[in-house]
Amino acid sequence: MIQSTELRDSRTVDVISRKTGLAVLRTFPLISRKIATAVAFVILIGLTAPSASAIAADDSADAAPSAVLAAAPADAPGWTTLFRDDFSGPAGSAVGAKWEHEVGTWGTGAVDRTTASTDNVFLDGSGALSIRALRDASGAWTSGRIITADKSFAAPAGGRLLMTASVRLPAVADPTGYWAAFWALGRDADAQIDWPRTGEFDMLEAVNGTPQVIQTLHCDLPDGGACDEPYGITSGLQDCAACLTDFHTYSVLVDRTVAGAERLEFFVDGVTTHAIEESQIGEAAWDAAIPNAYFLVLNLAIGGGLPNGVCGCDSAAAPKTSGGTMSVDHVAVYQSGAPVVAVPTISGTAAAGATLVADAGRSTPVTYQWRADGVAISGATAGSYLLPGTSVGKRITVTVSALDGSDAVTSLPTAPVSAGTLGAVTPTISGTAKLGNTLTAVPGTWTPSPVTLTYRWKADGVDIAGATGKTLKVATTQIGKRITVTVTGSKTGFTTAQRTSAQTAVVVR
């Protein structure tokens, strides 16, 4: 996926992909240094940036990103709509002036040639864009690749940028080699792309007709570096069972509201699926990529490094059905400035059984709403929140509002909630170690209640067959031995714990 046919005089570089072990030709613009990277990912030429034209703005409190995504492509309170397209128009007509075609072949191992033909890129007449891959009688493939004419989408310092699209993936009988993508490329202050240093956000990559999607950040050095290129910091394959039959939204939030603690958050259908903190990659690599101006790319390729890697095959050569179509219901870009009220913070350890405490950052009376992965938690409306076991793996935020619901601001999310630690107690044994007597395990009080407890009795460290109750009747086989009991505690969202009692005296007759 390099530049179009107008740049055939650009130099050609032979790149070996670490992902696939295949040698491919990639064409690069005349830039100052040789860039080596993976077959599966993308470089574009620098273009002159027009200024962004805001479609709508609202000075009220920011809507939560999940609410913005649910309403897209409509305007949202507190956000400026930088771009939107709902692809209205007659069936078979060309995509509008908000988009530019990129025509040519690309150095990602894909075998299709992208065109500006309405055979490949067209409106379906029902409010969606279609990008269709076609094979001609000679076996050659054509498809489509478009980018936004506006290349200035950026998150301001202290603000946020939200880029989203609703996409239905291609569904054909033989899909091996199909590669659908919705992504964004960053440009530096000179409007140049220096991949991956200037940044790439992959909101959606889906290959080979599998019900899975991938989301990735690319940054820093082309080999290794802070983003582990050429792989990037990736979500890996995420299951998305209905993505081949229905429209789903794929999004990224660039959150720069807290200096030094900025983050990227990827979503599928408004639910957080992948998040990357500034601290993960370091200030230098982050600042070289994240604050940049970005533009959007929609494309459907045939074959290439990523589908090859997923199928473990030559995906371009595999039998496949012509006519697969990537449909796009809408695309939108939103921006919010630095909040006029404080961003709340959360203190405490994100582990089951721990209590998180919100700091509203303001002195006026407020209300609280805690959320897990962006979904409001029923009844969680106090200034603190005790994390249940069911929250493990989720990121927690708190939205703070004035009493009338205005000035709603949401905190940064926590790390994913980890499994909690049970408050385990070493058991004791009551009763006399004598033949025929009954010994009773006294487990003590395990926390947080309730905890499921199981028992295992042993004689001189060896399990006593069938002795798994709270009591043990001493039998002849235990004479001359010392008895212990091991108590195991388990609870959803907590690490299982075991405690073993002290030994009894030697069992006597």
Q: How can the largest sheet be summarized?
A: 8 strands, antiparallel
Instruction: Report the radius of gyration as a whole number of Å.
Output: 29 Å
| Structure class | mainly beta
Tally of strands: 37
Poorly predicted ranges: 1-60
Question: How many H/I helical runs?
Answer: 4
What is the CA-CA span between the terminal residues? 84 Å
SS strand fraction: 35-45%
Helical amount among residues, as a percent range? under 10%
Shape: elongated
Mean pLDDT score: 87
Q: Can you give a write-up of this model?
A:
The protein has 509 residues and is mostly beta strands. Strands 3, 6, 7, 11, 17, 18, 19 and 21 form an 8-stranded antiparallel sheet that branches. Strands 4, 10, 12, 13, 14, 15, 16 and 20 form an 8-stranded antiparallel sheet that branches. The longest helix is centred in the first third of the chain and has 7 residues, at 65-71. It has 4 helices and 37 strands. The protein is elongated and about 95 Å long.
